[in-house]
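fyi for ur records
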Amino acid sequence: MWETIRRLVSTGSTVLLTTQYLQEADELADRIAVIDRGKVVAEGTADELKASVGRSSLQLRIQNPQDIESARRIVEQVLKVQSTLSPEAGRITAAMADADLVTDLLITLREAGIRLAELSVQKPTLDEVFLTITGHGVKEDEVKESDSTDKTREARA
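which gave:
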């Protein structure tokens, strides 16, 4: 289905797609309208919507588990943000408020002898966008609709 939609768009067709699967919207849509309870509450490209609700996050996986606390202190000091720690995975996550500071962070970690196993940058997902904009998740709406349908059925029985 996705390939058919991509083919239609590449040949100049306009496709209006409604979906509750936000990954689908992220993959296929040039522009997205977020609709909450029948009203458009946000509109733009996927990147515009993601940028409107938050920053990208930097994720670091530390090679040596004994270095994780030192690495966390360095991340917070250099990036000037709070970080979250997943000790079992050896992973530190921090908001990337200023991308230019990431170079300084990498240099500081190297000078401290802290080796990285992995580094990645994550943008907010469209699920996070929907949750931030509407204050509730897509799944919550599905459960509420299901609950009200069940109550309607009970009332008719």
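The chain has seven helices and six strands. thats all i got for now
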